[in-house]
Each structure stands twice: as structure tokens, then as C-alpha cells.
Write a structure and sequence with these properties.
This protein has about 950 residues and is of the alpha/beta class. About 30% of the residues lie in helices and about 20% in strands. This is 4-alpha-glucanotransferase.
Length: about 950
């Protein structure tokens, strides 16, 4: 019990008792406590917080705790679930609670504080996407903060009830009342109810004096619009009662009632990479300022959100394969590709203007010419820079930009200079500059050097990119459109970040994904994995800085491969494919564990299993040539790889450079695939850092190495395989995610969504739910077992649903590429036994798109290609050409461009009306008021595939 007030010889301060009461169900070994900003609540030290005690009341379990404090006590606080040693297992989401005692409390009073646990989903509407964009009604009357006072003297039969409710979605100009069963609450007449006062932070409060005889009191909250129309909250009546038998009767009851129970808010959006946008102004590739036109189109179509791919600089190699937007040169710098050179200056000379016009014509191609667009823009930008550099770089606006961004901008500019000087981004080849230091950096960027203007040019480009994207972001916010960014899981191993912060990365490894829907051989993205232990030393400062930077432009973001924050698929850096990897972190199979199971021949199971009959089966009569060039026979009919080709990357190099390559010139691909199969023909992967630890190879039963084992070994390995991949890691991965993800989420107030596709551990979705992370549902990749196609009507609310995404074929291409699958979809999803159309007609698209609009998911977000397929006019291009990425091809060229300009799309009122009808008929929110729309949320009649209403 905490006490307050001095003791000896002086009159003590008035003290009151706080009685906290929270309904919450825990598991065995868990308990609740409160930690807060004041000493009475532990000064944010959870171990010193106020422990709560479980109390059963009827069928509910309440956690209660008492503490004595001074009558003028104020504090911030939160609830925590802890184990027996007071280690935090979870804590409630949202902003810190603010406790201000009701007016008029006197010495000895008991104030009962009845709270609800704040779920992460409850706090979503306080994120910037909603708070600063969708519900930021700048045209409405601003709510003025009002004091909550008590204008009545109390007698012994009076109880003061303070009603507290959060209303983040309240329409500007509305008021909130409590209406209920007794006269003070209007006897269920909303207009006569108790009016609440706005006290800031979306919170509304009011005090009400009730007689003890009036309890229990039933009530509800109600919104009353500026026009006087009441709207009662959903759900059952709320109820407040008091314990009249208690010897220390509560004089005040603070009802912290959580959030107003509105109907679930649902919105819609469009997804398109910036590089895919086509406009009348661009130079062969979409630009940041094009986003303003895209926002206009989104608003006209009823969309509240525009989703982009990553927009960071990826210019690592100076070649077209830098088009891969997930391989960042810098996680802070924006890509110069998206610069609009016409907007660099108001005084561009006539000859440069003519050059821009010629470039527009030259670069106006079907697809993005990455190298030509970037080099043309940089050439033009340098000319304008040389004319206005002193004016711009001496401006107060630029100086402020430099001051706020120098921590990343100066190393980035130096890196770009060294990359171009040494003609490589591989900083291990930079001699004395290979190792970064602040002293070397200051010399590189200092004034007076011959290359100082090169450094300043990179500042100049980043400044203008910042200005142009900021202009687009501000425009989107004013139009009530969320810009949603993308947070890549990795960085290029030859990047500014690995140069400046080498200890944060495991440079001898690569990141990827195990075999899944996208690629049966797994994926190898080539990024080094993260050194989480090192990152934790400054509370993940690098990640926090990334999110802070993103929040300058975006109000929502997608966490790429969120599974990587639970565990990452780690590969050795000499791997070329993604198959033979292991999870990090994970609990390996120890040598002792394997021995206890009767497995002892570790070399046999962990080295490539190559026998003559396997070679003959794989390569036919050519096997002797393969064996002679790539293998050694270490015993009769048993082979091993030669030293110069005993990794996947060495195999690739030898196939291409061997003096004998003329022997397999026409068979190069099949030879490589065959050798990869051989080197991957293992059942256990030995840990390169600890030879006594092993990991089961993914899909080990598919290997001939497994097939030739004895039955006992097979049975043991099957059991250990299942345990490794589906059981023993769950708690470890959950703990790992709960260390890292909350840091990301608390680094900004952006709305976060997680890309949770692939091989999903059981712990992932509960953790995402706990943290308020919105998941992704793609109909052709259902997360439910034994389903070929997802059922949008059964998706949970905390999801984004979409018919396709950038990592798979478009809806049109998917429909047309597999006749059998198309027929199964038509029968099971459409519910028709008829033969489906071979072409993905607008009617088919309408049906599938409407399914997603009607889904319970918070967001329905559609690739622009799928939306344009609603109209025949836009389906003349072959469907496969609209694919953005092929995950099975590590050297895919990311160059898709929409074949119609935004200006033309804005002129097409028909397709905008078609999409808007889908938004409004599904009851989803849309920017602005649409005349004639059904605002009640009732569904309008649907267009069926047979064309009948």
C-alpha cells in the first residue's frame, strides 16, 4: 500500500483511496499490475507497480487493486500482464491512460476506477491514417476542450459517476450524450440525455450524481449530429452497479468505457507502384508529383487509400536490375528515378526545356526503360543544378532540410560519390574507405575538395525529391486519402547502411523464404540477415529512424515479409537458391539429441549424397562428363564435389568459365539444375558456426538421400522435421516478434499492415492480433488448410483483402492461364456448373472484385490492373504483360507501366462511376459525400454474372 503526505509534526495531506477494477481473463501463472508515472504506481518500473488481485463477481473475473494517494493526484498509467516474477508478458495498446481525479474529492473518499483493457485494434483509429487524414475534418467546427465540473453539493446517499468514452470517429460538429434508464440520463430519450464535454485526445467526459437507490443503472452512449439527429451506439446496454455492502463505500465511480461502439469502419484503396504510373508529364516512368493525379482519380473512384511499393534509392549496380525496389541502396534516401526535372526550377533555359520535351518522346515506351530514364533525368538535373546550386543550397528551406537529415544524407552522398569513383558499390573494394568512420566522412564531404559539387548534387536531388513527395503527401491528406508506403525486410549487402552500420548485419549470410506458393524451390533475396542482438543495444535505433523517416510522407505502411520479424530464412552467402536454409532464430537439433534417437552417421546425412546410379538417372549418358568435371570419386560409386564447385555460386561460376564449357554449351541450364539437385541432396544441414548443431532440410522426404535411409532413421527424421518446423520454435518466435515489432509500431503513429503470406507459424496471427497488425488475404493463397480458394465473406475484420498483389499474376492473367483451376473456381466460388468463359470478361472481374468489396475486411485494396479490367477498353494488352514481379526469377525486370495515362483515366467518368458504385453499395467509407448514394450502409443490388440485377 503506497502512502503520501509527510508525517511528523505537520498536518498530513488529504488522502483518498483509488480502487482499480478491470475485467480480464488470464492463463495460469499470469497476473495483472498497473505501472504508471508516479511513485505510487512504480514510476514506470513494472516490478514496482501496483499488483492486482483476481476477484470473481458473478460469471466475470475482475482484477482489483487499492492504493492511497493525495487528493490532487494525477498520473499516467497502463495495465500489464506479468508472470510470477513480474516479467512482462504483454501490455495494453494505445496511448497511456491519464488519471485525473474528479472534482470535489475529499479526505478519505474511495474513487473506484473501472477500466477496460485497451486492445491494439481499439487504438487503430488514433493512428495518423485516421486521426490526421480520414477523420481530420478541417472544414468542420473544431471541438473545444471543456472542463468537467460538478455543480452540486453531495450528501451521504449520493454517488458521483464519471462517464468517460473515446470517440475517434466522431463527425465534426457532433456531440456525445449518455442516455439511460433514470431521469438524469433522459429515460432513454437521447435529446434529454447527459451531455459529455470534449476533454482532448478524442476523449469525452461528464459527471452525474446518482442516488444509491437508483443502482444498477443501464445506459448507452449516443452521438447527436449538428442537425440534431441521434445515433445510438451498437451492442447491448451498458450497466453500472455499486456494492452497497462494502464497508468502505465508493463515493466516486470513474467509468472508463473504452470506445464508442460504432459499426466496423471499412475502406478501400488502389495499389500501384510509382514506376508503373503513366502521365502526360513523366519521362518514361512515374514520378512523385504524378501521385496528385492518382489521388484525384482515387477520390473520384471512392478510394481512401493509395498503396505504393518501396520508393527508396536502389541504384546499386547502375544497371536495369536495380529496378528491384526491395533491394535498398539506402533505407532513408528517395529514388532519383521519381524526380520531376521540370519542377526543379522556374527558370529552366529554353535548350534544357527542349531536351526535356525530346526525352518525353524518346522515353514514352510500353515499359519502363530504367537505365535510360534515370540517366536522362540525372543529366538534365545536373544542368539545372549548375545554374541554380548557390541559390537553392543557400536557401533557408534547404538548410533546414540538411539539418534535419544530415545523419543519413551525408553518408549517402559520400557513398554515391565513392560508388561512382570506384565504379562499384561493393565497399570492400574501396581501399582505405572500405571501413566507414566519421573522420573519413567529414573529409570526403568537406568544402574545398574537387568533388564537393558532386556531393552537393546528391544533397540537391534528395532535397527536391523530399519537396516533391511532401507536396504529393500533403495533397493526399487534404483529399482524405492515405498514402501507404512499403517497409522492405532487407537492404542490399552493398548499401550505405551496411557500410555505415556493419555490426547490425550478418554479412556472411543471405535472406530469403522457404518454398511456398510463390516458388517451390524457395527464394534467395541476397540481403544479409539482421544482427538483432546488436540492434537491441540501442533499442533498435536504426529501425526507429527508418519509421520516423517514412512517417514524413506516409500515414500507413506495409511491413514486407512480417514473418521475418518472428524468424528469417537464413542462407549461407554462397547459396544461389533459397532451398537449403534454416530459420534464425531457431532451436537446432543437437548432436546429443540425434545420438539419443539412434542417428549417428552425421556425415552421411549432412553432405551431398551422390551415387553413380543417381548420376546416371539425372544426366543419362552425359554423367561421365559431369563427374569428370565437377566430382571426385572418394570410394567406389560414391562421389563428392570438387573444391572449386562445392557451393551453388561456385557451380554457376564454373559452368560459365570452365575451359570445358563447350561440352555442355547447349545443356547449360539442365546441367546447372542437375548439379543443384545433387548439392541439395541432404537431409541435415550442419551449422557452419557450431558443427554439433543440425537443421532438417526443408522437404527432406523429397530427396534420394532420405529415400535410401533405413526405416528407423526415416521415422525419427520425420518426427524431428515436424517438431523443428511446426512445434519447438513457436514460443521462441513469439518472443522474438514481441521484442522487435512493438518498437516499430511505437516509432511512429502510422497505421501498420503486415504481409503475412507463405509458411505461417502458429504464433504469427495471435501476435499480430495482439499488436493490432492488419494481415493480408489473397483469394488464391488461402491461409486456411484444405482450401484452394479463399472465401472473402469469411475473412476477419483485421485484414486487407485483395484478388492479387504485385508478387503474383493479375486477376486477368490468373484466370486465363489455367483452364482446370478456372473451372474449379467457377464451380466452387461462383457456384455455377456452366463452362466458365475462357477470357476474364468484365463481368467475371466485377463478380470477384465485388466479393472483395463486400468482405468484412477493414480494407479492400486492388491492384490498378485488376480495376481497369472492369472495362473492356482497358483489356486489349495481353494479360501476362501486366505482371509486376515474377518471384521465381531473381533477375526479374520490374518495368511494368500502365498503358493509359492518369489524365485519360480521370476523363473516363464511366469506370470511376462503376468503381464508386462498388464502394458505396458495399457500405465502405469514401472521401466526400456522393449525391444519391445509399448512406445507410444497406447493400445496393448486385450485378450477377448473368447480367441480371
Amino acid at each position: 500500500m503506497a502512502s503520501s503526505g509527510p508525517k511528523s509534526g505537520k498536518k498530513s495531506l488529504n488522502t483518498v483511496t483509488l480502487l482499480f477494477k478491470l475485467p480480464y481473463y488470464t492463463q495460469w501463472g499470469q497476473s495483472l499490475l498497473i505501472a504508471g508515472s508516479e511513485p505510487a504506481l512504480g514510476s514506470w518500473n513494472v516490478k514496482q507497480g501496483l499488483s492486482l488481485t483476481p476477484v470473481h463477481q458473478d460469471t466475470e473475473l475482475f482484477w482489483c487493486g487499492r492504493v492511497s494517494v493525495a487528493a490532487g493526484f494525477t498520473s499516467e498509467y497502463k495495465y500489464y500482464v506479468v508472470d510470477d516474477n513480474k516479467n512482462v508478458l504483454r501490455f495494453e495498446s494505445g496511448e497511456k491512460r491519464k488519471l485525473v481525479l474528479p472534482e470535489g474529492v475529499q479526505d478519505g473518499d474511495v474513487i473506484e476506477i473501472r477500466d477496460w483493457w485497451q486492445d491494439a485494434s481499439d487504438a487503430l483509429f488514433l493512428r495518423s491514417a485516421f486521426k490526421n487524414v480520414i477523420f481530420n475534418d478541417t472544414e468542420g467546427v473544431k471541438k473545444e476542450v471543456q472542463p468537467v465540473s460538478l455543480n452540486k453539493s453531495l450528501d451521504s446517499e449520493d454517488i458521483v459517476v464519471q462517464f468517460v468514452i473515446s470517440c475517434p470517429r466522431l463527425v465534426s460538429g457532433s456531440t456525445v450524450v449518455v442516455t439511460g434508464s433514470n431521469p438524469q440520463l433522459g429515460r432513454w430519450q437521447a435529446q434529454d440525455g447527459l451531455k459529455l464535454s470534449y476533454v482532448g485526445g478524442s476523449m469525452w467526459k461528464a459527471n452525474c450524481v446518482l442516488r444509491k437507490s437508483e443502482f444498477p443503472v443501464k445506459y448507452k452512449y449516443c452521438q447527436i449530429s449538428q442537425a440534431g439527429n441521434p445515433s445510438l451506439e451498437l451492442g447491448p446496454n451498458r450497466e453500472v452497479d455499486i456494492d452497497l455492502s462494502s464497508p468502505k463505500q465508493s463515493r466516486y465511480v470513474v467509468l472508463s468505457d473504452g470506445a464508442l461502439r460504432d459499426a466496423p469502419w471499412r475502406g478501400a484503396g488502389v495499389a500501384v507502384p510509382v514506376f508503373s504510373i503513366r502521365s502526360d508529364e513523366d519521362l518514361g516512368v512515374g514520378e512523385f508529383l504524378d501521385l496528385k493525379l492518382l489521388v484525384d482519380w482515387a477520390v473520384n473512384s471512392g478510394f481512401h487509400l493509395v498503396q505504393l511499393l518501396p520508393i527508396n534509392d536502389t541504384s546499386v549496380h547502375g544497371m536495369w536490375w536495380d529496378s528491384y525496389p526491395y533491394s535498398s541502396l539506402s533505407v532513408f534516401a528517395l529514388h532519383p528515378l521519381y524526380l520531376r526535372v521540370q519542377a526543379l526550377s522556374d527558370a529552366i533555359p529554353a535548350d534544357v526545356k527542349e531536351e526535356i520535351q525530346q526525352a518525353k518522346k524518346h522515353l514514352d515506351k510500353k515499359d519502363v526503360d530504367y537505365e535510360a530514364s534515370l540517366s536522362t533525368k540525372m543529366s538534365i538535373a545536373r544542368k539545372i543544378f549548375n545554374l541554380e546550386k548557390d541559390k537553392v543550397l543557400n536557401s533557408s528551406s534547404f538548410k533546414q532540410f540538411l539539418s534535419e537529415n544530415e545523419e543519413w544524407l551525408k553518408p549517402y552522398a559520400a557513398f554515391c560519390f565513392l560508388r561512382d569513383f570506384f565504379e562499384t558499390s561493393d565497399h570492400s573494394q574501396w581501399g582505405r574507405f572500405s571501413e566507414f568512420s566519421k573522420e573519413k566522412l567529414e573529409k570526403l564531404i568537406s568544402e574545398g575538395t574537387l568533388h564537393h559539387d558532386v556531393i552537393r548534387f546528391h544533397y540537391y536531388v534528395q532535397y527536391h525529391l523530399y519537396m516533391q513527395l511532401s507536396e504529393a503527401a500533403t495533397y493526399a491528406r487534404k483529399k482524405k486519402v492515405i498514402l501507404k508506403g512499403d517497409l522492405p525486410i532487407g537492404v542490399d549487402r552493398n548499401s550505405v547502411d551496411t557500410w555505415v552500420y556493419p555490426t547490425l548485419f550478418r554479412m556472411n549470410t543471405a535472406t530469403g523464404a522457404p518454398p511456398d506458393y510463390f516458388d517451390k524451390n524457395g527464394q534467395n533475396w541476397g540481403f544479409p540477415t539482421y544482427n538483432w542482438e546488436e540492434m537491441s543495444k540501442d533499442n533498435y535505433g536504426w529501425w526507429r529512424a527508418r519509421l520516423t523517416q517514412m512517417a514524413k510522407y506516409f500515414t500507413a505502411y506495409r511491413i514486407d515479409h512480417i514473418l521475418g520479424f518472428f524468424r528469417i530464412w537464413e542462407l549461407p552467402d554462397h547459396a544461389a537458391t533459397g532451398l537449403v536454409g534454416k530459420f534464425r532464430p531457431s532451436i537446432p537439433l543437437s548432436q546429443d539429441e540425434l545420438l539419443s534417437e539412434g542417428l549417428w552417421d552425421f556425415d552421411r546425412m549432412s553432405r551431398p549424397y551422390i551415387r553413380q546410379e543417381i548420376l546416371e538417372e539425372k544426366f543419362g549418358s552425359f554423367w561421365t562428363v559431369v563427374a569428370a568435371n565437377f566430382l571426385n570419386e572418394y570410394q567406389k560409386h560414391c562421389y563428392e564435389f570438387k573444391e572449386d564447385c562445392n557451393t551453388e555460386k561456385k557451380i554457376i561460376a564454373k559452368i560459365k568459365t570452365s575451359p570445358e564449357k563447350s561440352l555442355w554449351l547447349e545443356k547449360e541450364d539442365s546441367i546447372r539444375r542437375g548439379l543443384f539437385d545433387l548439392i541439395q541432396n541432404i537431409v541435415l544441414i550442419r551449422d557452419p558456426e557450431d558443427p554439433t548443431k543440425f537443421y532438417p532440410r526443408f522437404n527432406l522426404e523429397d530427396t534420394s538421400s532420405f529415400g535410401d535411409l533405413d526405416e528407423h532413421s526415416k521415422n525419427v527424421l520425420r518426427r524431428l522435421y515436424y517438431d523443428y518446423y511446426f512445434a519447438r520454435q513457436e514460443n521462441l518466435w513469439r518472443q522474438n516478434a514481441l521484442k522487435t515489432l512493438p518498437v516499430l509500431l511505437n516509432s511512429s503513429d502510422m497505421l501498420a499492415c503486415g504481409e503475412d503470406l507463405g509458411l505461417i507459424p502458429a504464433c504469427v496471427h495471435p501476435v499480430m492480433q495482439e499488436l493490432g497488425l492488419i494481415g493480408l488475404r489473397i483469394q488464391r493463397m488461402p491461409s486456411e488448410p484444405n482450401l484452394e480458394f479463399g472465401i472473402p465473406s469469411q475473412y476477419s475484420y483485421m485484414t486487407v483483402c485483395a484478388p492479387s498483389c504485385h508478387d503474383c499474376s493479375t486477376l486477368r492473367a490468373w484466370w486465363e492461364e489455367d483452364e482446370g483451376r478456372r473451372s474449379r473456381f467457377y464451380k466452387t466460388v461462383v457456384g455455377s456448373d456452366e463452362e466458365p468463359p475462357s477470357r476474364c470478361t468484365p463481368e467475371v472481374v466485377h463478380f470477384i472484385v465485388q466479393q472483395h468489396f463486400d468482405a468484412p475486411s477493414m480494407w479492400a485494396i486492388f491492384p490498378l490492373q485488376d480495376l481497369l479490367a472492369l472495362k473492356d477498353k482497358y483489356t486489349t494488352r495481353p494479360a501476362p504483360e501486366e505482371t509486376i514481379n515474377d518471384p521465381t526469377n531473381p533477375k526479374h525486370y520490374w518495368r511494368f507501366r500502365v498503358h493509359v495515362t492518369l489524365e485519360s483515366l480521370l476523363d473516363d467518368k464511366d469506370i470511376q462511376a462503376t468503381i464508386k458504385d462498388l464502394v458505396t453499395s458495399s457500405g465502405r467509407s469514401f472521401p466526400g459525400k456522393v449525391e444519391g448514394a445509399d448512406e445507410s450502409g444497406e447493400k445496393l443490388s448486385k450485378v450477377q454474372l448473368n447480367g441480371k440485377a
